[in-house]
Design a protein that fits this description.
The chain has nine helices and 17 strands. By secondary structure, the chain is of the alpha/beta class. The protein folds into two domains: 120 residues, 3-Layer(aba) Sandwich (Rossmann fold), CATH 3.40.50.720; 155 residues, Dihydrodipicolinate Reductase, domain 2, CATH 3.30.360.10. Helix 3 runs parallel beside helix 4 and helix 7 crosses helix 9.
């Protein structure tokens, strides 16, 4: 219910796209939330028991009363779902990556501002349990360099997701943008892409691996190695070299080490360690009338595609 722009009680939310990330994270977090009430979904193939289910976002917007919409489709379909929701007067949470192009994302931010609605670009890895502690640890230290190693098994984490290999599907940058979202959260100034090498399977349109050379405006050198072909142990690390030792953010932001010794924190890892605080933040944004639409991680990926050397590698077959 809205009263002079404010929502009284729980925020009625609809989910667009009921795939793996929606089922693993969004649905259980919303079902346990005291801020949100999941009332509807829009999906061509899937549904959620106990709520209204529709075939597409426009049917959902016309068929049920909502305050907000979370867009969890592949990025190729984000703009259509998010713009329709904003035009209908709904607050919007966007899964990452934000959209196909920067122009689409900037259009969504402008539309949200025009409609006085919340747009939240949900960089979920920024809410990992040790990221805030890493920011606190790095504050006051002089960082000379950083190195990202973000390698995982695409067959394990993206089974059957053919969209990820198509144009606009981001390839390795679908998980890689998580690392860049943490990097832009932790480094104090603007970051630029100096060089990029993108390994693209000959039967795909998006890279399976990428190596980037970046730098901050203050001269911090950053390397990034992304790879979808990692088997066995998975690696999601960001290592900072500082004037007071080495700071390692490991396991996707779940654990923090300073000079090899783990720094304990109160935010114990659990299945929804990132998405529960993410939705807490979305509720705060809605109730305070603000947006959070940081484009910096997206710009780094766009620049990597813009200047990157494309190297053909062997075909990928699941």
């Amino acid at each position: 219910m809205l009263l002079e722009g404010r929502i009284l009680g729980r925020v009625r939310i609809g989910l667009v796209g009921i795939g793996k990330i929606a089922r693993d994270q969004h649905v259980p977090v919303l079902e346990a939330s005291s801020d949100f009430e999941l009332v509807a979904t829009a999906s061509r193939h899937n549904y959620v028991d106990g709520v209204a289910n529709f075939r597409d976002v426009r049917e959902m917007l016309a068929g049920v009363a909502l305050d907000a919409v979370a867009v969890c489709t592949p990025p190729q379909h984000h703009f259509e779902a998010a713009s329709a929701s904003l035009e209908a007067g709904k607050h919007v949470l966007l899964e990452k990556p934000p959209s196909r192009t920067l122009a689409e994302f900037e259009c969504l931010a402008a539309l949200a501002a025009q409609k006085k609605l919340t747009l939240f670009q949900s960089w979920h890895s920024r809410f990992a349990p040790a990221v805030a502690l890493a920011a606190e640890t790095l504050r006051g230290r002089n960082i000379s360099s950083a190195a990202i190693v973000w390698k995982e098994d695409v067959r394990r984490w993206h089974p059957g997701q053919t969209w990820i290999w198509k144009a606009g599907g981001f390839g390795i940058f679908d998980p890689g943008i998580n690392a860049l979202s943490i990097l832009t959260r932790l480094l104090p100034d603007e970051i630029f892409v100096d060089d990029a090498r993108l390994s693209v399977p000959s039967n795909c349109q998006a890279p399976i691996a990428a190596d980037l050379a970046l730098r901050s405006a203050s001269g911090i050198a950053v390397t990034a190695a992304f790879d979808f072909r990692q088997t066995g142990d998975q690696t999601w690390d960001i290592r900072f070299t500082t004037d007071r030792g080495e700071v390692l953010l490991s396991e996707g932001g779940s654990r923090l080490f300073v000079d090899g010794r783990e720094v304990k924190h109160s935010n114990a890892p659990h299945a929804h360690a990132e998405y529960a605080p993410l939705y807490d933040h979305f509720a705060t944004l809605i109730r305070s009338g603000r947006s959070d639409a940081d484009a910096r991680p997206f710009k780094l990926v766009a620049d990597a595609f813009l200047i990157g050397e494309r190297i053909a590698v062997e075909e990928f077959h699941e």
